[in-house]
Design a protein that fits this description.
Elements: H1 3-22, E1 45-52, E2 60-67, E3 70-76, H2 79-87, H3 95-107, E4 112-117, E5 123-129, E6 138-148
Antiparallel strand pairs: 1-2, 1-6, 2-3, 4-5, 5-6
Length: 151
């Protein structure tokens, strides 16, 4: 192959990868767009949280309502979520609290502290693993059905 055809292939492959990675506005991205202000947690919103992995009190699927920056209602949507809220009703977090947990893990040099964000900047997935070889210290949060609400 000539140098020109190799360069053309590289450009074509790069274009396909870029198009696949950024074609949808709802597609989660690992980083925020350059020049875009970081997401600001609104005072009132609702979202669905699926919390899994590890040995923690908050496991299961939940519908969470936040007003004035605090959780005002949380409902377990599956058996595990209902049991979690029965034993620790205060455990349901705001998105801001989840982001603080992510930041703390990063500051403490966790083995894994990653997040994906929606086009508007709110988190859609947070993965934590504080120690690579530790058992049951992982946490995975999947955020869906996020909706700002009027207070």
């Amino acid at each position: 192959m000539t140098a020109v055809s190799l360069a053309a292939r590289a450009v074509l492959i790069g274009g396909v990868i870029c198009a696949a990675a950024g074609c949808g506005t709802d597609t989660p991205t690992g980083t925020r767009a350059p020049g875009r202000a970081p997401w600001q947690e609104p005072a009132s919103y609702t979202y669905t949280l699926r919390s899994s992995e590890g040995e923690r009190s908050l496991l299961g699927t939940f519908r969470i309502s936040v007003r004035d920056g605090a959780v005002v209602r949380s409902v377990g949507l599956d058996d595990m979520g209902r049991r979690s809220l029965e034993s620790a009703p205060e455990a349901a977090p705001t998105l801001g609290e989840l982001l603080k947990e992510l930041e703390r893990a990063r500051q403490e040099d966790a083995h894994t502290a990653e997040a994906d964000y929606a086009a508007d900047g709110h988190p859609v997935r947070i993965s934590l693993d504080r120690e690579e070889n530790a058992v049951d210290d992982e946490a995975r949060y999947v955020i869906s059905s996020y909706e700002r609400t009027d207070a």
